[in-house]
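pasting for ref
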Amino acid sequence: MSAAVPIFQIDAFTDRPFAGNPAGVVLDAARLDESQMRRIAVEMNQAETAFVSPTRREGADHGLRWFTPAQEVTYCGHATVATAHALLEAGRLRASRLVFDTLGGLLPVSVEGPPGGAVIWLEPSVPRCRRFDRPLDEFLAALGLAPDGIGAWAAPSLTPEADLLLPARSLGALGALRPDMGRLAALGTAEQIRGVCVVSPETVESGSAVHSRFFAPHIGIPEDIVTGSVHSSIAVWLLQAGRLRPEEGRAAFTAEQGDFRGRPGRLSVEIRADGGQAVAVRVGGRAVTVLSGSLRVP
């Protein structure tokens, strides 16, 4: 026999359908085992599908797991934004702030505004970026990025999620990337890197600060459309590079991603600093439901 599992598809980091990054969301996953979650993620074939369940962990409101079509991950930003949006639309938020119990630890989320127009803020622990000192030649070749396409405005760095941040010289260099996904997947596996995020200081819109592309083919995401999880680290990286000038200890900016995939996404990013060191960071965006229904799960 099969069971009908209610599911939503939600576009995150956008306020209009068919833009931003789509995620699957199952709000009632308590009766699903891990094998069923994995099969649903494969069937949805989105970068991530999120599964909500009860939790007994102190300080948490819900359990939350994320699966790509290939594996479970410890942190996913856009699927968390999509999950909070789904809970809000379903009338299942008891407060404007909630905490998810995840594989990567407790993840606080704040919701500002009414359903249909709320901004959902991810509030992860402050990440620490460390310089990536190994040679870049193989990564550049796998990305299809010429050596003169690398920018000098920031140092290549690794995030806590093992994402490699690379500075691009320009938006044109970013758009010209033609990754060899097989080669990039082999490198990611060999170097134990989750993904490669190439960041340009030139943007599509004049009011934005950066434009990014993110590749993680070895975990089932050839090119992510909008990567919420990496942008808290990008904020710290920009601060370390002197690209942000906090006023009264705070800096805010808009980040772009997804335009080269035909699905523009926009993220609001805020960082607080003390003595030049980041002390808090949050990443926010809107979301819109584009599909609701149910899956028949054996």
